[in-house]
Amino acid sequence: MRISSLQSFVTGTSQIIDLSGQVNKTQEQISRGTRILTPSDDPVASSQIQKLNQENNIREQYMDNINLLNSRLELEESVLDSANDTIIRIRELAIQANNGALTVDDRRAIAAEVEVRMTELADLMNTKDASNEYLFSGFKGSTVPFLDNGSGNYTYQGDEGQRFVQVAASTYIPSNDSGKEVFVNVSSADPTFQAFDNPNNRGNPPATISTGFVYDQEEFNQFYPEDYIIEFQNPDDMTLLGKSPSLNYNIIQKSDGRVIESNVPYTSGRDIQFNGISIKLSGVPATGDSYLVESKDTQDILTTVNRFLDGMRSLTLSPDDQESYQNLISTTIANLDHAQTSILETRSQIGARLNTIDSTQALHEEVEIVTTELLSTLRDLDYAEAVSQLTFESFVLEAAQQSYARISGLSLFNSL
Asked: Does residue 250 have a pLDDT over 70?
């Protein structure tokens, strides 16, 4: 067989290039510490490595979610713990106020601390998290959950939404609790009511309505669960009664529109009493302005405290007021107990969520250890084997280079 000089040179050069490529590849494997430089090196292992890396990325996101969720729930638990301590103190003040030997000044002194504690409680219920969102507003994270209308009558502005965070493939954990569920929907010891401003009122500035309180529970129970509307009439209507024109209102039964009291003269800050309840309006309403008095079997925590505060400041030492005062104290203590129960139930739910987070996090960490070991098996280089292979490949390359040098120097003219 004839072999031309050119063919000999090309063959030798190609062999050297291939051997050099093998040496360079082995050197790169050693420098990187991995045996797979491109998917073609081991297609099956490369596919498994890609899948495991994707799972690791997802698991890292789950771990980030767990860290954020854990800090948010711990903050909520801390806030609820502080709120519970505040309620305990208000309950102690209610027991202290239930002393027949107290004077009006003594009651006012207790009321002063109750007012401070109520503000403290409202601030806790309006706590923000690290993301500057309110903890207890539901889905409305940027909305103040509990808003005072200016007379101590707090209304809930959030919703009942509960956000869920994914911490595993099929595990979702609530990251918050609605303030309505925790602080508003609290069982009341007795049937009660809540007063609301009509948002369409035209008074400028609008008159505000207080929380009020039930001064005669038996009388109120006779009409429960009826709702009422306080509606302001034309001042000129008073002339029909032979009186000077002045602000006046009707009290209307909501279910059938029946007027139970009509053209009652209005004085800002004076008690409005009917069917066993007492409330106050402050300001100057416009004709047509209205206020809703809604019967309820629940009572939010701030309303409980504010009614206790109003009762201590407005009820006198007369026998009739004393009876109302005693009823108010007993109802306040019972409702504070219900509020504590609601908070403790929420805290127990948070504890259960934190336990689930801990077990899920531990599982992720265990899986991560197993995955890391498997990745090492598939990807990591056996240095002893690689160094031995590099030595052999270097020896073969050197031999090929020497043989090429000798063969390339051969020529027929050398024999002439």
From this structure: yes
213 CB neighbour count, 10 Å cutoff: 26
CA 86 to chain centre: 21
Find where tokens 């959030």 sit: 158
Q: Token pair for residue 23?
A: 């040496």
Q: In terms of Cα–Cα distance, which of 139, 90, 97 is closest to 119?
A: 90
Query: Phi and psi dihedrals of 380, rounded to 5?
Result: -70, 150
**Total domain count for the chain?**
2
Q: How many CA atoms lie within 13 A of 57 on its CB side?
A: 6
For residue 376, the domain's CATH number is 1.20.1330.10
- Find out whether 292 and 227 touch, Cβ atoms under 8 Å: yes
Q: Is the separation of the CB atoms in 360 and 168 below 8 Å?
A: yes
Q: Is 107 helix (H, G, I), strand (E, B) or coil?
A: helix
For the stretch 276-329, pLDDT in tens is 999 999 999 999 999 999 999 999 999 999 999 988 988 888 888 888 899 999
334 shares a domain with 290: no
CA–CA dist 306, 311 (Å, integer):
9
Distance CA 279, CA 298 (A): 18
Domain of residue 293: give its range. Answer: 191-298
